[in-house]
Amino acid sequence: MPISADDLLSVVRNYWRSDHAFDDKAENSPETKRLQREWAQALEKMDQWRVLLRELGAALPHFNIGNATATSDACFRCSVYPNREPVYTNPGDEPRSRRWAVVGCVSILAPVYSIYGVQYDYRGKERIAERVFFDPLPPEMQAPAEIIARKLEAMFGVEALPREIADIRIPLIVEPREPPDTTLFHALFSSYPERVP
Predict the structure, then answer these.
(1) pLDDT tens-digit map of 126-154
(2) With CB atoms 3.0 to 4.6 Å apart as the test, which of 46, 97, 133, 146 could cross-link to 86 if both were Cys?
(3) If we measure between CA atoms, which residue out of 195, 174, 196, 194 comes closest to residue 184?
(4) CB atoms closer than 10 angstroms to residue 160
(5) Considering the entire predicted model, what is its pTM?
(6) What is the domain partition of the chain in residue ranges?
(7) How far is it, in rounded angstroms, from Cα 177 to Cα 172?
């Protein structure tokens, strides 16, 4: 049975606050303590996550597979990059290149996942632009995204979080996002989707 937006909002209220009451305190908020407990339990699944990464490597041999998990987020994240040289968009005196990745996320707070793409433009080694794609993904990202989705569903028993639910604005702070810019996606997955190592 699909999880509703109301159910998800009820869940994330346990882990994120709507105020800054604990910002200057030495102790963590009750919400932060609960998130830390969730991570302690989730890290017991790290072996399963590593299996997923190996299986993705076997299924996507022309890609580099990375673990982009950070315990400041509320999810396990993997990144899938083409292992070929970046595409040059402006071969002139100053080379510009474009790199991209597909990112798969499994929330530690609810049995849902999300897949998105990121694109980075560089001038030499300097990143000059970044863009996050949700639905629809650019054509080059679609095939790896489908493989990641199938693997996440099979290994973790999770379902895709529909975009219309992921984009619902919530009255909670998920650093650095604050209302009205915070969404269910940020609370369930990452407030920095564009930051992928």
Answers:
(1) 889 999 999 999 999 999 999 999 999 99
(2) 97
(3) 174
(4) 16
(5) 0.93
(6) 5-18+29-188
(7) 8
